């Protein structure tokens, strides 16, 4: 029988679904928008509880939920990923690490990269890629599938802005396993051959390997040229130091890049789904 939410009045309303499986099956069948909408209508427009990816979770909804989360980061709430996601995306050494430590690098210069002056640098890149993408992927076709093409465009743009990578072959070597990884992130976390989650783990490993090659090559390039000014995020990450004056490791940088890539794709998919 599906598990009902606890009778504890301090917990939000909702159900945790079946033991082990939780409500992963319902999520897969309905899709995220309908899954959330149905439970908002049934339980609460503000917050409800469920069980996904092997974890008990509370889902905050609407403007009130967003405001609560964004105004209470590291006060009442903190960044978190289910263990199944960490296993698929991060290096094994970081699977049990506090996500606050994993994302420390990203937070350290969020302000700098989001300043209007910095954002202006991205406009020519976005404009050039948009024109190139439309000419290559849209114009020759009588019918186009917007969703997959928009995902492809977003990933290419992320590679250019985050990594400074423009080589189509390198982007493809990242994109193919990245798709495997992200498609299996919200599946039932059972690591058996043939499962979506197993493919996600394999895809994540290939993404990390490719990123490590890119990072090592870029670090070598920066050392040889002794350059300190770069537009792409990867180069900035390689040049920034922590509170102890030490450079971040290649693995730490890879973890943060993966987080940015996942976030960019999720942000793009939400308004289109």
Structure description:
With 273 residues, the chain is mainly alpha-helical. Helix content is 60%, strand content 6%. The chain has 2 domains: 3-77, no CATH class; 104-272, Cytochrome p450, CATH 1.10.630. A hairpin with a 2-residue loop joins strand 3 and strand 4 (55-60). Helix 1 packs across helix 2 (32-42), helix 8 packs across helix 9 (146-163) and helix 9 (146-163) runs antiparallel to helix 13. The protein is globular, with a radius of gyration of 20 Å.
Could you report the average pLDDT, rounded to the nearest whole number?
A: 84
Proportion of residues in β-strands? 5-15%
Strand order of the largest sheet: 1-2
Mass-distribution shape: globular
Biggest sheet statistics: 2 strands, antiparallel
What level of helicity do the residues show? 55-70%
Keywords: Iron, Metal-binding
Protein name: Beta-amyrin 28-monooxygenase
GO molecular function: heme binding; iron ion binding; monooxygenase activity; oxidoreductase activity, acting on paired donors, with incorporation or reduction of molecular oxygen
Short description:
Pfam families: p450 (PF00067). The protein has 273 residues and is mostly helical.
Keywords:
mainly alpha, two-stranded antiparallel ribbon, 13 helices, 2 domains, 273 residues, Cytochrome p450, Cyt_P450
How are the elements arranged and paired?
Elements: E1 3-4, E2 15-17, H1 24-30, H2 32-42, E3 47-52, E4 55-60, H3 62-71, H4 83-89, H5 99-102, H6 104-108, H7 110-113, H8 116-138, H9 146-163, H10 168-183, H11 196-225, H12 233-239, H13 250-272
Antiparallel strand pairs: 1-2, 3-4
Helix pairs in contact: 1-2, 8-9, 9-13, 10-11, 11-13
